[in-house]
Description:
CATH architecture of chain B: Beta Barrel
Radius of gyration of chain A: 25 Å
Largest interface: A-B, 47 and 37 residues
Strand content of chain B: 25-35%
Distance between the termini of chain A: 48 Å
Oligomer: heterodimer
Radius of gyration of chain B: 14 Å
Amino acid sequence: MKKTALVSTLALTASMAAAQDQDLPQASSEWFTAGQTTIQEILDRQPNTNTARNVIVLVADGNGVGTNYATRLFVGQQEGGLGEDHVLPYETPEWYSALVKTYNINAQTPDSAPTAGAMNTGVKQRFNLINLGEDAVTGDCRTEDANKLTTFAEIVSGMDKSVGIVSTARLTHATPAAVYAKTAYRNWEDAIEAPGDEGAEAAELGELCPNSKDIATQLIDAMEAGTIDLAMGGGRRHFVPEGTETDEGGEGRRADGTNLIQRAQDLGAQYAWDTATAQELTLDGSSPILALFEDSHMEYEADRADEEEPSIAEMTRMAIEALSTNENGYYLEVEAGRVDHANHDGNAYRTLTDGAAFAEAVRVADEMTDDEDTLIIVTADHEHAIAFNGYCGRGSDILGLCYEVSNDGIEHSDQPNMAADGKPYTVLGYLNGTGSVLKEPTEGGNEWTGSRPDVSQEDATDMDYIQQALIPMSSETHSGEDVAVYAKGPYAHLFDGTLEQNVIFHVMHHAVTADDAAE
Amino acid sequence: MHRRSLLATATVFLAAPALLRAADPDGPLKIRELYEKTGDMSQLALGLEGERVTFEGYMAPPLKADAQFFVLTKRPMAVCPFCESSAEWPSDILAIYTKRVIDVIPFNVGIESRGVLEIGEYKDPETGFVSMVRLTDATYSD
Lengths: 519, 142
């Protein structure tokens, strides 16, 4: 009886509160009405249980929750706002979201190979390898045959869908490779190596691992098998023989002398290597497409010239146009690979300009597709050792100094916060990397010492500025912190709570096979 | 990267925009000011050829001991195991030929180097390092 009375009282209170919303002193606040609007948008959201004809996964490599936060502020500030309240294209209420746990089977701090593999096969994998089961050993090609997993690309190819890859990194790099490759080591981009002390002679390697192939060869094999229909990105050198000049005057790296670009063309593939040749591609789905815009990774967005190579958004547009000619649908993975590389450099400017370019690619993909039949997933493979200082006032430039909070206004004051050493500091920093304030002794010994350099707003916002870090390392590292996943379209509502990374595959798989499951 | 033809081994070419000079016209130049995004030499660079100028950057770990040559990088030369499968030079570096044998400065300590700007291909006879642009008769300090 007592409990019933309590429940009734609570219900009455809630009812009174609802009835009196408009009477609350804060009811006229824009924050209040915006909050109500958001609630209504979420209430209006209906689970989409259509079978997905198309699946697009957009991965910004290294774009964990922290890096994504920085990109949000950067884009908002570039558009003239304060930044904190900016909404990236995938952050609106129509997108479902969840947190993702990114660790690998044997690594608390993950790398991009097994994380992308988890998304493409449905199981966690081991550090530095791609699409092999848990008994595989990193770097040992002898363990490949017994551990090869089936990829999402192979599954949907069996459903007569097309498959495409877009990446600003090399197409043989970990994240794009996870769509088509199975390898014991992610760096075997143009050749495999013998395990341990077995020696590296090609003949012996053939006996040890007769079925093992380098990653570039696996891409063209997949194109021949029909499990890859479009691939756009960098990495040309891994497709061209040693001693052979590439399209831009570089040199191939293939020791086996195979010209994989020629092989792809002999299979009927169209080939592009710069913006002009990309614009000449026929996007009617009649033939596979191979586009290799750089010998290594494509340029950072900050350094890219339109006339030299297309943006990630433009590549995404071309890919969707070509793949959508298949009436059975398609699977497309898009990777902004260089968000990760700029983080490794400790260079926030290029991290965020590439993050902004990624957000634009998401906007294009969403605009070109229909939520009724296309599941779009936006996520990252892992986070970095990126961190944020306080207490910064609103609108402090995410690339610049952390300014004091204004007590009587909204935007920050004109005084930078000072650390105990009497120097200002930036909003964004890294825990480790080349920006370390500790310097190697030049007179021998191991006493790394140093103090923080003074930094001005002009220095900090320069495109080449390296944010200050603590632990000295030659390259800033990944971290095991969660990333987010955002999704819309068929079965996007399955993304909720805190999920293991391999669950992403299961949502994709469920979305494309839902009809079959119901029968 | 259309016109940025890589020569064998380590060719020097410089990415990024030719920006207008910074607020301080007498301050050190940035490596990125040497080139257009397309890889073409900037008007600024062409106009400074043969002049004694100062650049800021970082000393990459020297290629050999007791050298009078090092590579100036615009950012500390990070070695990223997950970006590159083997060590390679970034695409935006400046060769520095010094007056004296160099004293190594840690790769992540900012320095300035002053010397005569030379443009055109040159292969270092000792290291085989090929540069397209360099400072000669240079000094440097952190």
